[in-house]
Amino acid sequence: MRLTEDERRSYDEHGFLLREKVFTTDEIDELRVAAEELCRDLEATAGATRIKVSAHYVFEPDAAKDLIIKWEPGPDGVIQGLEPVAHLHPVLTAYATHPGFVEPCRDILGLREVGLFTEKLNVKRARVGGQYALHQDYPYWRGAAEDAERLVTVWVALDDATADNGPLEVLPGSHRMGHVAGKTSSMEFERNEIDPDTFDTSGMVAVEVPAGGAVFFGPYLVHRSSPNLSDVDRRALLYSYQAAGLRTQRENTRIWLKHAPPKG
User: Fold this and answer.
1) Is residue 263 part of a domain?
2) What angle separates helix 99-109 from helix 5-14, to the nearest 10 degrees?
3) What is the pLDDT of residues 105-128, one digit of tens each?
């Protein structure tokens, strides 16, 4: 599971690394079942406090679970994502130490020990799954993570991510740009998004990933994804790693939801 020299050079040059067959078919089946159990339970107990935080995202804070439920905009009540998520299901907790996650992240970060910063479940349902705005992760994590520049995310495909169902799109080499300025907006979260009208996206590429494959990338990589226009779901699990022992996003979420829930 450790990085080869070629993989390390590719990651340093392009800002991301695609590995196929990181997880077995049985492992992906186990993760899918856990994800669907979680979504089903949360949809059944969802509350009414939903906050529009950008044109693309509607949040529901759940202080009892240290969780932000992300809903698709609109009246249909379709879950778009969950964060943080690993503490909510024993299978998702157990996979946090899977070597397919941990070993490459140790090499990328140059650390002997790594631990989770945050985890997300992204759910793009067939025909209704919306787009994820052009962005870097760094603006969302600055001030939240103790070392926001030294994080690596592992984006795992629970379904085949194809050109038709809204795959991850990345701008190779954009990790060398540093922090790209966000939009001017009255909504706090929208200010973390990059305006595609003023930012050159012509070099972006879609990363098609077979189920069980993974994409590794850091906090400065510019990325987005398009809507799911296909007849199949496109689900992804994202685990973000940092130096072991640092504050987690779950701890941050608990504080935010107790004192100041997210505002639009």
Assistant:
1) no
2) 70
3) 999 999 999 999 999 999 999 999
- Is residue 243 within 8 A of residue 111, CB to CB? The reply is yes
Q: Which amino acid is at 72?
A: E
Distance, in Å, from the CA atom of 109 to the CA atom of 117, rounded to the nearest integer, reads 13
Q: Rounded CA gap, 39 and 34, in Å?
A: 9
Considering its fold, how many domains does the chain have in total? 1
For residue range 114-173, what is the model confidence (pLDDT) as tens digits?
999 999 999 999 999 999 999 999 999 998 999 999 999 999 999 999 999 999 999 999
Provide the domain limits for residue 21: 5-258
The reported pTM is 0.95
3-class DSSP assignment, residue 120:
strand
Check which CATH number belongs to the domain holding 130 and give it.
2.60.120.620
Residue 36 burial (CB count, 10 A): 14
Neighbours of 63 (CB within 10 A): 12
pLDDT for 116 equals 98
User: What is the C-alpha separation between 148 and 212, in angstroms, rounded?
Assistant: 27
Distance CA 249, CA 262 (A): 14
Asked if residue 232 lies in contact with residue 21, where contact means CB atoms within 8 angstroms, the answer is no
